[in-house]
Amino acid sequence: MTTAVVVGSGPNGLAAAITLAARGVDVTVLEAKDEIGGGVRSGEGIVPGLIHDHCAAIHPMAVGSAFLSGLDLPVEWRLPEIDCAHPLDDGGAGLLWRSVEDTAAGLGADGSRWKALFGGPSARFDTLAQDIMGPLLRVPKHPIALARFGAPTVLPASALSRLFRTPQARALFGGVAAHTFQPLHRPLTSAIGLGIITAGHRHGWPVAAGGSQSITDALAAVLADLGGKVQTGVRVTSAAQLPAADITMFDLAPTAIAEILGDRLPRRVAKQFNRFRYGPGAFKVDFAVQGPVPWRNPQVGKAGTVHLGGSFDEIAGTERDIHAGRMPQRPFVLVGQQYLADPQRSVGDINPIYSYAHVPQGYTGDATESVIAQFERFAPGFRDRVVGMAVRTTTEMSVYNPNYVGGDICTGAKDIRQLVFGPRTTLQPYRIGVPGMYVCSAATPPGPGAHGMCGANAAQLALQHLAR
């Protein structure tokens, strides 16, 4: 029987394992931690019974994933009334509804521009996903649709934002584009923003009922049903620890793979893996809040995701600062109000509020007060409603998940080269130059998220090579 070892049990490691096991491969997953899931974990914190997502929280790219959809997982996706809100200092807000038309209606003079940019691609997203959820440098299945969608993606977000004239539309787009953790004047920084917004207009920005952990639990159950095995508490640090197998998949950061394989890795690959660039970090603060957050704009209180960053120009400035290693006074903060769609996460009138600030790579300071100040800026009185909080610094992020080097929750800077090629300059980003061995982490296309497509794509490639 063909055998496989998967090192790492994040969503991509589990996706790779399931893809292989479904084809009759005898699969063993090795996980360094005592629990599986990587960044797709949840648990009680601060107040007994209060459920917090550890990292991955909102899933616009997962709910429509070809891999997850093909499994018919028993995961209940729940949607908030408003997908995302971006409050401004004047009390206004850019509001992202699932409907393109409803979003456009709230953007005034920019409504027609929003519909022109997102209407067509959103209607065709399931077709587009067949091309954008894999390596970019390949023959597309739907070249015309991809060309229409892809033309604006090559632009810097700062350039594409000029399509809009209202501060609400510019900030709304800029906040989503900031998910790339890159300076917004760089080419291709529009790509992630366009992809997430388009996916959201098709499928919404859902949460998983009971916490993101339910996605991991469902994947683990599928793998077990297929005969796959998982061993926790097994930290692989050298090639000598790897069991003999026909296929070995690494759901790890490229530098970790280089360290494990050492001289077994071809010199040219080792050089690129060791030079792999990591992006800015996330400084996470979870809150237990009595009652709702007192947002100045009540519509923001209906949004599952909130971006605290001010105007587009302010966001562009803070992203430029963190990339240069400077901690901004008012960092961009992503807020999750998952309990709005999934009330079981709350305990009585105590609600879990998720947040993280964009900070420089490896930031060693304490950004807690900066995060709270951003809440107070748009929700005066927030501090008085906080009954407890838990902080995870960039250092603690990398301990929680070693793939998050320096707090980089994207597993690598998503600059032009790494966004297009992955860990090294090649047309086959999942191959590492050692027969039978592949990388399947979020360092590879299509990148971070709970969608599992990095793992599924890598496993399909491994199966193709095995059949030759």
From TrEMBL:
InterPro entries: FAD/NAD-bd_sf. It holds the Pfam family NAD_binding_8. This is FAD-dependent oxidoreductase.
